[in-house]
Every structure is written in C-alpha cells, then in structure tokens.
Amino acid sequence: MSTGGTAISIAGWTVRDGSGVRHTFAAGTTLQPGKAITVFGGASSIPGGIVAVAASTGGLNLANSGDSVSLRDSAGATIQSMSYSSTLANSDGVSINRSPDLNATGAWVKHNTIS
What we know:
single chain; mainly beta
C-alpha cells in the first residue's frame, strides 16, 4: 500500500519469498496514493472490483509450512518484508491480509476472516 501523498512507479519492483522472485511489476506500473495492488497466483483467480495483477512467473507458490515474503524496489533494496507461520498458511487458496485491510500496522490474518 502506498502511504505517501503522490503516485509512485513500482516498475521493476519484485515480490520474493525464501526461494526467489515470484513476481516482477511490469514497466509502467504505478501505485496511487492510499491504494494497494494485489498479486494473485493466476489471472483466472482475480475477482472483479479490485486492483490486481497475476504473478509474472505464472504462480506465487508460497510455502504452506511458513515462509518470508519481501517487496524489493528495482535496485533490490527491501521496501517491506514479513514472515508467516504455517498457522496462517494451512489453507490453499486463502491469502494473508492486514486487518483492518490496507492498514500498515494491522495484524496479519487469513483473508476469509475479514468482513
């Protein structure tokens, strides 16, 4: 989520886990202030009404046993990172979101528990 007051280019930024790059944001990708972009494993799973992209590698494949995920800028510097345990990842097809949603300091919870 962009917490600044202006749009920022995230072209070339990557989403990584402990195994490597899972998504690279395409040229021209801009994040608007106060907004977020969700990365889904595949295009067919993106619901309508949200700003989302499909993983450029064809899938996220994050570990159900726990993992670390980081967002890195185009120079490779870590912008944000988090680690999660198997208790948050033991349901295939259920993502982990902040609660309240889009709150940079909210607790990490399964998305299907947020109203």
